[in-house]
Amino acid sequence: MSACAAPQTSSPAPGDDAMVGAPESSSTTSYAPTPAPAPAQRGALWYQLDLTGEELRVRLRVNAPPAAASFFLPGPWAGQDDFDERIVVESTRGPAGALPMHLVREAGRIDVQAGEAAWLELTYRVRAPRAGEPHSRFHPRRTASELFAYAPTIFVLPSEGLARQVRDIPVEVHTPRGWNVSATWPRHTATTLSARGDRQVTGYLAENVRTLRDAFVLAGEDLPSRQVELHPGTLTVVQSPAMRFDIDDLTGPSARIVRGFMARYGIYDDVVAAILPSDTSAEGSELQGMGRRGGFVVQVPRHQQMGPELLLLMAHEALHMWNGHELVPAPAAEAETRWFKEGLTHYLALKALAREGLVDRRTVLRELAAAARHYSQNPLARGAPANDLDRTRFPYDRGVLIALSLDAALSEASQGRVQLEAWLVQLLKPHLRDTARAYDTDLLEGAFRELCAEIGPVPLQLFETLVRDESPIDPRALFAELNLHWLAPSGGGPARLLPIDGETDDFDRLFATEGDAEHP
């Protein structure tokens, strides 16, 4: 484990217009289990992110563009639909100078007449929010000494036809001299000083447009950072200097969480974990997070201390690198499968923390009891009208209970040999995880059916009841099967789970620490 400082110049200084991240002919990325076949337009698209000014500026270049090229402003994402309003297009040009451009703001579309130009460049900036303008944690955040942005909020993207063809997309990040920069794209070139010496340049390489977009970038002055070798893979933990707790308090647990997930679900060469202060003025919850492909973000109050609450948030968002970013729900099935993306993720994150000994039995029981309480009190569990908060919570709590039910059924049918993690492993196998096919309930059931082929029909029947039929869940009966007594909340107190006669072998098998039981 070592601290990361701003890198020193390690190669000749590039000119300010030079693209240092251009791919080599044999370059590939290895964190995807099966690299996609190389299409013809390798390196045809690249981006330059300039973080040196008050606003983020972007240069987009397309080599050998079509005669009429179309680009699209950032669209709705994470419940927000105003990212396109922050994009200010400045110029379009080719080798001979300016190119005709037509911006259709209401359609979020930019049409450029490139003719026979060998390349075209589109230059734009992402403006800062105006006074009184709505702002959420998903918008880019810029201070005098730090910038954080989710990729879907800052990238103008080429049309779908071109996006399907390009691969190995260089992303060049310019920052003030002395800044640290971290991003979830694989790093392609070391940080170097520009020709003028007043900025640093770092090159990354996104495998395709999906990877380009499913990312974040964090850069700043004196960002506390730690790097841990996971053997294989590397974890980099980066923390805003605004946080008041020591980065070393969370680096060790983060490494154990990510190492455990990678051993089970697949390797990322590099993972970036960003710890930022929560924006309580813009969001209702103080604990916030977001998983991305190759990294995750947690946002917590500046005074937050290490404990079960933060650990569970970190484990949940880390697991989204696989369940949510390697495995992606089909748009049409997003609502019906949200229990799987969020509730099952939360449950498996809790299991992982228990397996690593990072949370105790009392914490596990408290989390399961809380999910049952929220579920039983939610009007949607009774088919009644619900408010926005109830609708948001419901897939999480219902998903935790479905996950526990299926996990218990798999474990009982297999005498503990097969548990719920094996379902996620099954879904990640190449024969099911076609890169062009997102999952829906049919795909989830197909993988579950394969898992049950050798252990009997009971878990599959339960899947049909809970998922297909959406039958209500009785928390009391579910916990009784694990020899736990559920005390529903009363008098404003929390729900509780207590062992019946002290015998909880079935429950303990599910939440055993590593080495106490066989794991798939």
Descriptive terms for the model:
520 residues, alpha+beta, eight-stranded mixed β-sheet, six-stranded mixed β-sheet, 12 helices, 26 strands, 28% helix, disordered N terminus, disordered C terminus
Q: SS-based structural class?
A: alpha+beta
Q: Helical content, roughly?
A: 25-40%
Distance between the termini: 30 Å
Shape: globular
Strand order of the largest sheet: 7-6-10-4-3-15-18-17
H/I helix tally: 12
Alpha-carbon Rg, integer: 24 Å
- Indicate the mean pLDDT: 87
What's the structural blueprint in terms of helices and strands?
Blueprint (H helix, E strand, L loop, with lengths): L1 E2 L37 E2 L2 E6 L5 E8 L4 E5 L14 E8 L2 E2 L2 E4 L4 E5 L5 E8 L14 E3 L2 E5 L6 E2 L1 H4 L2 E2 L1 E8 L2 E5 L3 E7 L5 E8 L2 H5 L2 E6 L3 E5 L4 E6 L8 H18 L4 E8 L10 E5 L2 E6 L7 H12 L18 H18 L5 H17 L10 H26 L7 H7 L13 H12 L5 H11 L6 H7 L2 E4 L8 E4 L5 H6 L10
Parallel strand pairs: 2-14, 3-15, 21-22, 22-24
Antiparallel strand pairs: 1-20, 3-4, 4-10, 5-9, 5-13, 6-7, 6-10, 8-9, 11-12, 12-19, 15-18, 16-19, 17-18, 20-21, 23-24, 25-26
Helix pairs in contact: 3-4, 4-5, 5-7, 6-7, 7-10, 8-9, 9-10
